[in-house]
Amino acid sequence: MSVSDLPRLAAPPPPAGSKKGRRLPILILFLGAASSILWGTTYTVSERLKLRDRALIRATREISLALATSHLWLEEVLTGDDVDRRKIWGRLDQAHDLAVRLLDGGRLPLQGTELPPIEDRALRGRVQSLLTDIDGLRTLAHDRLSGLDRGLEMGVGSAIDARYDILFEHAIEAATAVERELEVRILRDDARTRRIFLALFLVWLATVTVAAVGLWRREQRRLAAEESLRKSEAQLLQAQKMEAVGRLAGGLAHDINNFVTAITSQCELVQLDVEAGSPIANRMEVVIGTAHKISALIRRLLAFSRRQPVQPQVVRLNTVIAGLEAMMRGLIGEDIQLATVLGAEIWSVKIDPSQVEQVVLNLVVNAREASPRGGRITIETVNLSVDRGLFEGPVVVAPGEYVLLAVSDTGSGIPPELKDRIFEPFFTTKTGTGNGLGLATVYGIVKQAGGHISVYSEIGRGTTFKIYLPRPADAAGGPGVAEPATPERGLTGGGA
């Protein structure tokens, strides 16, 4: 496993309560209300037009019926039947009145519908022709009945009767033409209404889609914000826990160091009082050696608690790592390959050189212990500019310029339930060996240098420790100082 195999971690998401997020519900509500209003208005107008046109059709049919009825009664009167003539004039007047109302507007007496004046020129011309025919029929009917009263022959076959029949047929055709024109207009209005409804439906569908996408994105931002908050809380808790343990370890280390110093001093005084090489002197030498080991352990505790005196210098990581190659060859086994991938033009960092060596060696030893069946350990360096910050698990890398030092292995990996505890002092999974201070010391050194450390691990694939060391603004030689790239080198432990 190497740095290039790791997933890229995005910058922190924008806050969920941004202006865009607040405007989205208002925009959706506005679009939905506008679509509903347009839909309702179009439906209302369409229904009113349908009612008007259907009322016109019914009125036209009533005109045709009135003309037909008056014609039938007039023929009965002329053939000698006893028919009330007022019915004839009543039906003709009714047809005339309906035609006038169709033309100029008004309320239909039988339907109670208020009609506006006809504005369509073609339709208005047809209704005007119908009204003219009705007036002509009224005149011819009056002439026929007057002639009958004077004893003239006004029966079937007379000239006036032929004129009346022709005019009657023309009037019925005119009424039928008006009816057909109105039916065509209804169909045309229905088609237009359907198109409008389709457009409104598409607008509504687009609104619903925008609403769904907007709400989904808003929910994603909310979940991302919650995840960011959870990571920040985890980072804070981890930092607080490590800080508390560090203070405790630092305090204990100072107290133990005082006792060790007293023991060492007394042993040295005893050595002054006895002969060199005597059993007592040898025993004092063993005690002093043990005390030195305890002092080394105390220094590691102080490094973890960040209270050990350090001498930070501007160093080049590539140079330090190259100087450790011989030692690392002796630390890893023959079945483990060590590869160094040192980036080009690596910036300098400000840190105690001995602490850098301790960090690298501790991580290499840890990688070796995680690879009992052999494998590959990779050490990489690269320059990294962070613009908006990075999330590395619970670790948040602040914006800035860093030198990234990564130590990867192809070992067994770290179980997820143990990842949060690996930097705790005295925590170890080894039985009988190890004091659990290796990674704790690395953590303390990195934090003391103002850097960040994160770990990425997969069971069966390996582990990568990534250390972000800040690039100092007052580095010697200025910001432009860098070192050339070192080609990848493959090393195998066990030999020179």
SSE order, one letter for each helix or strand: HHEEHHHEHHEEEHEEEEHEEEE
The first-to-last residue Cα distance is 25 Å
Helix content: 55-70%
What is the number of strand segments? 14
- For the biggest β-sheet, the strand order reads 11-12-10-7-4-14
Class inferred from helices and paired strands: alpha+beta
Name the poorly predicted regions.
476-496
**Mean pLDDT over all positions:** 78
Q: Could you say which overall geometry the principal axes of the C-alpha atoms support? A: rod-shaped
- Share in β-strands: 5-15%
Main beta-sheet strand count, sense and barrel state: 6 strands, mixed
Tally of separate helices:
9
- Based on CA atoms alone, the radius of gyration comes out at 51 Å
Feature tags:
disordered C terminus, 14 strands, alpha+beta, rod-shaped, 496 residues, six-stranded mixed β-sheet, 59% helix
